[in-house]
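Chain A, query sequence.
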Amino acid sequence: MITRSLLGAVVAFGCLLLPVHAAAWQGVAPVRVVTQERLESPEPENWLSYRGSYSGWGFSPLDQIAVDNVGELRPAWSFATGVNGGHESPPIVNDGVMYITTPGNHLYALDARTGDFFWAYEHDLPERLVAIHDTNRGVALWGDRVYMATLDARVVALDAATGTVVWDASIADNTSGYYMTIAPLAVEGRIMVGVSGGELGIRGFVVALDAETGDEVWRTHTVPGPGEFGHDTWPGETWRTGGAPVWLPGHYDPATGLTYWGTGNPGPWVGDQRDGDNLYTNSVLALDVHTGEIRGYHQYHWNGSWDWDEVSTPLLLDVTREGRTFPALVHPGRNGYLWLLERRPDEIGFVDATEYVFQNVFTDIDPASGRPSYDPAHKPATGQVTGFCPSLWGGKDWPPAAYNPGTGLVYIPANTNHCGTIEGLEVEYVPGRGYTGADSDLTLAPEAEDHIGELQAWDMNQGREVWKVEFPSLNWGGVLTTAGGLVFQGGTPDRYFRAFDARTGEELWSERLSSGVMGVPISYAVDGVQYIAVQSGWGVDPASMTRRIDGVRGTYTQVPEGGVLWVFALER
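Chain A, predicted structure.
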């Protein structure tokens, strides 16, 4: 939970393991060049990007680990990162070499078969760093390099074999509240990133850098300036500090050359301090990968006042409705609705939106445009305390959903039965300081006594939920699904990492890990052996939400910290 007292301070992080801006070697990693062709059609044994492919499915075509033998899954090896806090990044694997990142911008290259150490890099962070979260969501690969975005708003290109810095490019001024937790997206020789800082009065953007040189190719702001379409949705000078951060990686459609990005909350949080729709906050944008031109958008909710960031990039898949198959965007929203949109060459069309967790804010959604109407009793305003459901953590926060083409189902890590309050406060913009204008709290619906967390499976062709699994407390785990008919997920405070039958939701296997799992799981293979890998390491929002739930319930939940990479394989 981000509070006024926390946001009013400048957060400083120090060095943890290695001399700053340094690499340490134990060996040299063998490197196979990563090309555009490989990223568009990744080999089944590799996991070359954040969600395994440009479509964002989080799907592995490996099937050695399957429904009938997953119960024999055992730890193969592990690696302690030596870092506390929320470990959110997926391992990235290229022909037996694994790259992982941690809070504080540590990056490790490991042997994916044995866990042996190749090299490590620690970024040189400023002594007085401005950042709300110190996490990192992973790396991108291109050519013979590995790319990481940093908390001080830089992008670093490293030699993938040695960890040596090739270039280090400044993206924005960290002292003004810009920082980065995002995993970069590599497309056509461009490295694309977006910025965090929506609670600090930034003006969000996506930027593309030349992969070879680090030179800026284009920059697209997510809050339109004078003369740009949508500028009139911001009163006065509010556009300068309007927010719309972009802190999760985009997806890419090679057929159209469009890349899709989700945007976050406006600033300040309470909408009556910036009347208007406030484009392009809480939206999905279609950007031309070559120019950065905005070719389409859909705003999930206008004049956002609930801190419902919609930064999760929609899944790119084909959906059939009423006998028509079309290229779709599927987005489980933080606002509590499951959105079905259509990808078109020069626009994003609205198709459908279905409530998938309990909410009480939207009274109606226009069937043509998808624009919601609000119950004014549940829309926060300055000078009052307003309650609403779901809470600011939403139906699904940043942990990614997944899609399995074999089952035809979308798997959603959801939270329901939680609500919240926001007290709207007058706020003055000061660079690098909190700019929410709000105090917030968590409440629970009566149904929360039964459960809060859910893992849901949806058939998007029929627009219906097929099955769900309920958890007593929250669910904050990214989802992996495989051709073996499985769904893997952590995300609960009890520290279990679980496997479910992808068709029925039956739990088939679990392993209790050293800390809670908020990392994103992946699957890969080396020498014909399939592995499942995930980072444990509890912190940031799930830790805060757990404390708030304990406060309401009068309980106490202890979740140990300490990051560990866990790798599993079938018992041999």
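The chain has one domain: 27-570. The helical segments are 4-7, 36-40, 540-553.
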